[in-house]
Amino acid sequence: MKLYNKTILCVDDDEDDLTVLKEAIETIDTSFTIVEAYNGVHALEVLQALSDQNNLPCLIVLDINMPRMDGKRTLTQIKSNEDLKTIPLVLFSTSNNPVDQLFCAHYGVELVTKPSSLKSIQQEVRRLLKHCA
Fold it and tell me: What DSSP line would sit under 36-79, residue for residue?
């Protein structure tokens, strides 16, 4: 059985969004290790490496709109993998499209619209970190 630790995988092609998310997590709890990936293909490679080390993340925060492999395809790949499918995953996006909401509901994952203010981001991150408790 794989162990989940205090690692969070943040997947986004926008480096500014990754930095803001990482800083919000570190402001709330410095004991988390944040691993970054820049698209779905990269995320799956990172997850495979972490799995090989029995070091799976306690949470995956995944953007929807990315090059190479978008968040929806990445999510379907993760959910079809026996070792990865139980990791809590949140789609974090600027989208509030009803189609995206239905997609997330189908897979039982939350779609969070990226907050626009730092205070709102920190509040959302505080809530998301409860997945790692």
Answer: EESSHHHHHHHHHHHHHTT-B-SEEEE-SS-SSS-HHHHHHHHH
pTM over 0.70: yes
Question: What is each CA distance from 69 to 4, 16, 33, in whole angstroms?
Answer: 25, 19, 24
Domain annotation covers residue 46: yes
**What is the token pair recorded at 48?**
């495979």
Does 1 reside within a domain?
no
3-state secondary structure of 93: strand
SS3 content of the chain, % helix, strand, coil (to 5): 45, 20, 35
Residues in the chain: 133
Report pLDDT digits (tens) over 64-73. Answer: 999 999 999 9
* Count of domains forming the chain: 1
Q: Which domain, by its residues, includes 59?
A: 7-132
CATH number at residue 86: 3.40.50.2300
For the stretch 110-117, contacts whose Cβ atoms lie closer than 8 Å and that sit 24 or more positions apart, written own/partner, are 114/17
The reply to whether 24 falls in a domain is yes
